[in-house]
Automatic annotation (TrEMBL):
Name of this chain's protein: Methionine ABC transporter ATP-binding protein
Classification via Pfam families: ABC_tran, NIL
Boundaries of every ABC transporter domain copy: 2-241
Family statement: Belongs to the ABC transporter superfamily.
Species lineage: Bacteria, Bacillati, Bacillota, Bacilli, Bacillales
Length: 333
């Protein structure tokens, strides 16, 4: 659905050139929810804005739904942009217009006739759960409701792609969850491809099928979200993963450990969870669980346990070999 080929954006500033995006090549599949994460200044916004040419790349190719956007004249580009909706952290609603008018405006701008607009706006407000707020003004809405209006507006002209620029960063955790649930519904029911930029791994964990990690304008790692969480390759990816799966043990506890400290990681299905109790029955070792969690990465469980194995050295070694045989990832720490 979206192909970026060696996309670069270099800003010319008074103090010299600033690299926004540095030769990024990516493919985002139709119907996918794709996350782009990175710290502030990594180039996420610039890259996202290159997808709908809000930011014109200095070089490279941007192909959306088979159309090479950089080859289009400005009028053709305006039409092509109708199939790419966008929402922002700051909502950008028109404060002097009602919720209804804010959404209707997008239809008017696309040339939809007045009689058809009303029906479509009501349908969109129903989709985002705001049918009762049609006559309200943006100042009368909560942050989550404002984002719902902006989602309705972005979907007005039936886009194939929805770009989300830190869409939940200004929202509290529970409102974030409800907006992510709405985006999930839009992706599943309408088949819209979604690209989300965020610095929150919780967002990626919740809805992204695949994701990319950016630093200094480059993509440093990319892949299925589950693989990124269960087997991060780059230190930066690990940094982000740790914001969700932090397993640092207090130094005082570490100082008191006499046995072998083991970190087990597996898909948290029940059958595999029995590995630990099987191991404790088979060998003369005790296992003290010091930390344990099953996280759901887009609904697929990932179990991580840290335990201390205590007992005779040879029994510990046998127990460890047994664990290594049955569990995909076992690490002595
Ligand atoms: N209009 C501009 N003119 C000059 N430099 C810019 C411009 N926009 C972005 N940059 C620079 O490009 C780099 C990438 O910025 P960008 O906003 O894309 O990062 P980001 O990862 O989205 O950060 P944030 O999360 O803070 O928005 C930064 O060094 C930034 O200063």
């Amino acid at each position: 659905m979206i192909t970026l080929e060696k996309v670069a954006k270099i800003y010319e500033t008074k103090s010299g050139q600033v690299v926004g995006v540095d030769n990024v090549s990516l493919t985002i599949n139709k119907g996918e929810v794709y996350g782009i994460v990175g710290y502030s200044g990594a180039g996420k916004s610039t890259l996202l804005r290159c997808i709908n040419i809000l930011e014109r790349p200095t070089s490279g190719k941007v192909i959306v739904d088979g159309v090479d956007l950089l080859k289009l004249k400005s009028k053709q580009l305006r039409v092509a942009r109708q199939s790419i909706g966008m929402i922002f952290q700051g909502f950008y609603l028109v404060s002097s217009k009602t919720v209804f008018e804010n959404v209707a405006f997008a239809l008017k701008a696309a040339g939809v006739e007045k009689t058809k607009r009303k029906e479509r706006v009501l349908e969109l407000l129903e989709l985002v759960g705001l049918s009762d707020k049609a006559d309200h003004y943006p100042t009368q809405l909560s942050g989550g409701q404002k984002q719902r209006v902006s989602i309705a507006r972005a979907l007005a002209n039936n886009p194939k792609v929805l770009l989300c620029d830190e869409a939940t960063s200004a929202l509290d955790p529970s409102t974030t969850k409800s907006i992510l649930a709405l985006l999930k519904k839009i992706n599943l029911e309408l088949g819209i491809t979604i690209v989300i930029i965020t610095h929150e791994m919780e967002v990626v964990k919740e809805i992204c099928d695949r994701c990319a990690v950016m630093q200094d304008g480059k993509v440093v790692e990319e892949g299925p979200t589950y693989d990124m969480f269960s087997n991060p390759k780059e230190p930066l990816t690990l940094d982000f993963i740790k914001t969700v799966l932090d397993f640092e043990l207090p130094q005082k506890l570490l100082d008191s450990i006499s046995g072998t400290l083991v970190r087990l990681q597996f898909r948290g299905e029940l059958a595999e969870e029995a590995v630990v109790s099987d191991m404790l029955q088979k060998f003369s070792v005790k296992g003290n669980i010091l930390h344990g969690k099953v996280e759901y990465i887009k609904e697929t469980p990932l179990g991580i346990f840290i335990m201390e194995l205590v007992g005779e050295k040879t029994e510990q070694e046998k127990a460890l070999a047994y664990l290594k045989d049955r569990v995909k990832q076992v690490e002595v720490i």
